[in-house]
Give the backbone structure.
Amino acid sequence: SSPRVRLPQRSERRSSALKLQTKERFFPMAEVIIVPGREAGGKLVASEIARRIRATPDLVLGLATGSTPLPVYQALVPALAGVDLSTVRGFALDEYVGLDPAHPQSYRSVITREVVEPLGLDPARIRVPDGRLDGVAHAGEIYEAAIMDAGGIALQILGIGTDGHIGFNEPGSSFASRTRVKTLTEQTRTDNARFFASPDEVPMHCITQGLGTILEADHLVLLAFGSSKAAALAAAVEGPLSASVPGSAIQLHPHVTVVVDEDAAAELARAEYYRYAYANKPDWQGL
Ligand code: GLP
């Protein structure tokens, strides 16, 4: 006869909740890999993506913009040479609102230039949230439906903002948030001004996958390079779960790989453990 499932009594539930708070080993934790530099990080992530695409030719990738993932996209070109990519699908994390999609800094343009064209992907299979003013109120729901229709995102690439944002989920974003319009912080607008002719040109609003959307991807790969990311990265990986640090939402996900260079790793309290764990990583375990 099959074993009976006995639901825990109320007192037992309470004590196991206490254990969860006090015993770190009960938490699934991100794997943190400290690499010598951007290029090494890009190659490592690209080789995992290439492995996944070889196994699943219609893989659904979650694509990040910003400068951080560029070494991944560059390393993907040689890693995928000769592989048929005609069925690969992709969803960008976010887009500026009110910026002409043809503007060179729209995320549609960035994804086309940095990912679609170099890899020769089918542009019809790569979606970016629609940030055009006309219809932006419903663009979030439409995007969520498209992700669901594709069967969800298999591997989501993430960067992190200096204020701890992932996608464009600024501090205060709900862990349950879905794709929606957000107002950018002044800090993010200042950080991103380098891509525009003047800081005033940086849009005030964006449309971004929510933290709840991002948490539904099967595998999150968060990259961070450079000392400007050290504080935000440490808060996201090791700090308390908090909507004030949107990147800390990754701690709720059972499969996260964090790839950082030495500078971005500088404020991690458990850096030695991460190095030790990676040095002793079982051969059978992929990223
Ligand atoms: C940008 C993007 C994020 C990105 C982050 C860091 O504004 N919306 O997806 O991860 O901010 O950008 P960068 O990689 O250029 O430092």
Summary: Confidence is low (pLDDT under 50) at residues 7-27. The two ends are 39 Å apart (CA to CA).
